[in-house]
Amino acid sequence: MQTDYSTLKQLDWQFGDFKKEAKNFTHDLHPYFGKFHPMIARTLIEELAPDSKYIIDPFCGSGTTLVEAKALGKNGIGVDANPLASLMAQVKTTSIDNFILKDIYMNLPEYLLTKYEYIDHYEVLEKIEIIKPEIHNEKKWFQDNVLKELGLIKLSIEEYFQTKDWHEDKVQAAKNLCLLAFSRIITSVSNQQTESKYKAVDKNIENGVAIDKFVDHLRICIDKIEDFNGSTGNVEIEIHNSDSRYLNFIEDEKCDFLVTSPPYLNSWDYGLYHKFRFLWLNLGVKEYNNKEIGRHLRRVGDVVDRYRNDMSLCLKEFSRVLKPGSYCCIVNANSIVKKEYVNTTEIIIEEARKADLILEDIVDKKVFGPHSGMHASLLTKKTEIKSNPATEKMRTSGKEEQIIILKKYDSSKE
Ligand SMILES: C[S@@+](CC[C@H](N)C(=O)[O-])C[C@H]1O[C@@H](n2cnc3c(N)ncnc32)[C@H](O)[C@@H]1O
After folding, report:
1. Is DNA-binding among this UniProt entry's keywords (predicted)?
2. How far apart are CA 18 and CA 37, in angstroms?
3. I need a surface site. Which of 17, 170, 345, 367 has the fewest CB within 10 A?
């Protein structure tokens, strides 16, 4: 019997205030472009797979789906090629013992502030110089005082955890939390204009501001993780910093629900906007760029062919790791590439079918703020988009995404 998706179609997928919702759990520990509204993941899980046990988001980004899975008491697997995103997803979903959280909350700021008193001493400056990354045009992007303070924070995190005799997994989880709090403040104290404007401006950051911001944010992160620890059961969440075209580390039919939002053609350049974070955290931006689906190429045809091939590889893997009869929900938006409209939803549906993921229905939804980057270019920028019925539809209907509901073919239901 055909399933009725009218309840999903009648929902208001805007779900009210994104910022308010994102304050729940650990969702807002770090900014990331293209985040899901948490209620999208939650609603799809609750409506389509309330009894699911293993949820996978193979383009998990900052980990929204996995946070919701954990909050719902479900096991989860997240995969993302972006090492910074994987760090976010990991920190947001990893429980840390309360005694460790308390230790960091009380003692790391004190350790850092004591070191700060000696920031201009030769031995400290020498260590900062060693730990600081090489930044092209360093003076353009960072004030001297900020460079020293960021170096000191990084040095303190390194040194602080060397003194701990906790199990190495616990040390790593606690250190990751501190590194994420560190990462969060980097753009705001650099000369980069904003999170989404890669332009150097003078910000006149006073002495001590970077240190204060780090301590404040670290404590907010710790409070949120402590609250989230207390509110969730014992579930297993794995995060893999990997390429979803090759999921050989996940066994066949392990998962019973997939929800994801794939990389959009030609949208955010994560490597550029988060450039200084990649550098300070020693994350490989080149490796990421090589794996990232949807990056700019010279000709539109090349972009679309490459995208189709990449998504085809991914969809085959999604099908392989799903149990027969399981849902695979893909939240997608069509794209504009070099002024031409590309119907990526159609490409996904076609390639999914070849991988035994059969279309059940499509639910249209409006795009809320941060997700609308690509359409913003269509709606607000001065760029000329080639006019045809499809681009006109996008221009007039505005920001729309589709939730593509697929189901893995189940031969036993024949
Ligand atoms: C639209 S974002 C997902 C955002 C996520 N839903 C969230 O709430 O944060 C798409 C993600 O796909 C990731 N990605 C791109 N190419 C990939 C690949 N080959 N394998 C795995 N992840 C990839 C990007 O790094 C990006 O984080």
Report:
1. yes
2. 6
3. 17
Calculate how far, in angstroms, residue 112's C-alpha sits from the geometric centre of ligand 1. Answer: 34
Per-residue pLDDT of the chain (414 residues; tens, 9 = 90+): 678 899 999 888 888 776 777 778 999 999 998 888 899 999 999 999 999 999 999 999 999 999 999 999 999 999 999 999 999 999 999 999 999 999 999 999 999 999 999 999 999 999 999 999 999 999 999 999 999 999 999 999 999 999 999 999 999 999 999 999 999 999 999 999 999 899 999 999 999 999 999 999 999 999 999 999 877 778 999 999 999 999 999 999 999 999 999 998 866 788 888 999 999 999 988 899 889 998 765 566 678 889 999 999 999 999 999 999 999 999 998 888 777 888 999 999 999 999 999 999 999 987 655 443 333 344 334 345 555 555 555 555 446 789 999 999 998 887
Does residue 74 share a domain with residue 199?
Answer: no
Query: How many domains does the chain divide into?
Result: 2
Ligand 1 atom at minimal distance to the Cα of residue 371: 1
State how far the alpha carbon of 259 is from the alpha carbons of 35, 76, 159, 329, in Å: 13, 11, 40, 5
Residue of the nearest CA to atom 10 in ligand 1?
263
Q: Is 288 in the pocket of ligand 1 (CB under 6 A)?
A: no
Residue 363, phi-psi category: left (phi > 0), alpha (psi -120 to 50), beta (remainder): beta
Distance of CA 135 from the midpoint of ligand 1 (Å): 26
Note whether 104 and 87 are same-domain residues: no
